[in-house]
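User: Sequence in, structure out. Go.
Assistant: Echoing your sequence, followed by the structure tokens.
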Amino acid sequence: MLETIKLTKRYGDLVAANEITINLSQGDVFGFIGPNGSGKTTTMRMIATLLNPDYGECYVCGKSIYTNPEEIRRLVGYMPDFFGVYDDMTVIEYLEFFAATYRINGPGRRKICEEKLELVDMSFKRDAMVNQLSRGQTQRIGLARTLLHEPELLLLDEPASGLDPRARIEIRKLLRRLGELKKTVIVSSHILPELADVCTRVGMIEKGIMVADGVVADVMKKAREAVILEIQVMENTEKAAALLEQHDIVNKVTTEKETIFVTLKPNSDDYSELPSSLIESGYRIRQFREEEVNLETAFMELTKGLQQ
């Protein structure tokens, strides 16, 4: 579906995108994660043929951005982070205007616009003026506009930027729906929790360099070099910590208030001896769990906080 090979874009001495390689199959929802200015928008604009790379190649459905740019534009739906709307149009007129630019003509055009409004849950605003919509409603109308020509690949640049919590939840629901429709989606964001439960793959970019790319679970695993356990016992926390520290699979033990943090040695996947040892020594266990690794902690582990 999508293959980029060492896509590179320079602005003088600044390398905005440095040999970016991405491979996506149909139906993948790819979370493109990085701080502002890390190269996400530059990469997406090159894929959309809106920006010429200095080096590298990109194929969309097997077509090169160099030799088939017009065909790729018919295959791609690009939604920038900010876009303008017209003051004197209703929502349905706005969509019909853009449908006409995609050469969607005849009586079927209105039907297609109505279908996309329904898909983004905005049918109730079909006759409202576009300049009177909220930020969240405007984003959903922008997504409907992006879907009009039934693109194979969607490029959504910060679709939840500037939205309130309820609107961000609605955008996540829409992303899940697009995945169910087998659309291939690249969605960029610097707000990590909003991508964690909707993406099948993630890529983390920093200072133009892709520092991690893969299935969400694999990226999480890469970020966690060792298992950390969070343990609470009913009494004698310090003594319990000292007992745990004696085990061969344990690398480090620290305590914070009533919680014992046990860092295991690499490849110590079986730690069943630890709770058994506590119980046999007379300790009552209140909590025993692995420390959760999410996209936010993974990003902090895999990046260095560099700025362009």
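User: And one key feature?
Assistant: The domain at 225-292 is CATH 3.30.70.100 (Alpha-Beta Plaits).
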